[in-house]
What we know:
The chain is mainly β. It has helices at 9-29, 31-50, 71-76, 195-198, and strands spanning 56-64, 67-69, 79-83, 91-98, 113-115, 123-130, 139-143, 147-168, 175-176, 183-185, 188-194, 203-209, 218-224, 226-229, 242-245, 248-249, 253-266, 273-274, 281-289, 292-297, 314-315, 323-328, 335-338, 342-351.
Amino acid sequence: MMNNQPPVKGKNMDEVKAVLRHMGKVMIHNWPMKAACIVMAVLLWGTLISRDDSLTRTKVFENVTVSVANQSTLQRNGFIVVGGLEQISNVRVTAEVPQNYYDAAAASSYNVRVDLSQINKTGDVEVPINHTRNALYGEVTDLSVEQVTLQVEEYLSRSRIPVKIKIEGDMPEGIYGSASNIMVDPEYVSVAGPRSKVLSVVRCVAVYDLDALSGDVGLERTACAFYLEDATGKRVDMSNISVTLNGTTIDTVIAEQNLYKTVELPLDPAVLLKGEVADGYRVSNVSVSPESIVMAVRDASSFTGDLKYLEGAVDVSGLAENTTAVLNIIRPGDVINMNSDVAYVTVEIEKIEDSEGTK
Length: 359
């Protein structure tokens, strides 16, 4: 028997309203827990996403200096780069980095480099900029400079380039040192670099600065900077040139010099004469050059410094006119150097006026 009664709409609406009221009660009465669940879900989602290595972020490194690899290999092959490397000092590097390692990634992670080992000729050579994929930090996707043009010359090495001393400045006051006894170590060096420059080098010039000396008596050792000269005395540009001693690069040489204390011996004109001039005449003036003798001595404390070192005196006996004489100065055994070996004495003689004012 069929039920032909129509559905009761009011009853269905009441059921819907009951469900909505129940959901509202659930939302209202449990909202703190539900909010906490939402936050935890977001955090969990973020953690899972951050650990997904398949998701990457773009990172840009500015002003990257590209490293230069295998310079020594290039030199062993007989070549050297003399220009063009300045192009790789400010390169922009773009990389795709797994987001888990984004903060830790650095430009050095990708070994961005120019490899010189493949160069096999002189002149202008195109060289690519290489980079390496990193298992942790991803890979480079773009370089602002992808290749550079390098200028290449033949590499040459020469040995036994003599070292010469160039003296500058002034010796400390009261100190003497002979330029002839300056010893330099090493006496010879080796130079290597571009053939065009190395062939022009004839000497290594060490600058011995007297102003830098300590002023102490005894053996002085000084580190001296140097430069290279050609046959005309012009400085050779030392860029790309290495100076070595027994395979070790050096930037100074050592100068050794014995320094001595100086003492001054004044020459008193009054004691440089002997005898009496002619009757009716007198000595009006005596001058001596130099006015004093400066001696460098081994032991200044034992130096007496008197006129016993003069060989005789000027004999003016019976003279009635001006005269000039030369006195030898005897160098004592403990004296290393004197500013002069002789003293020039000039004696001026004039007639004595009589009581009437006539000569």
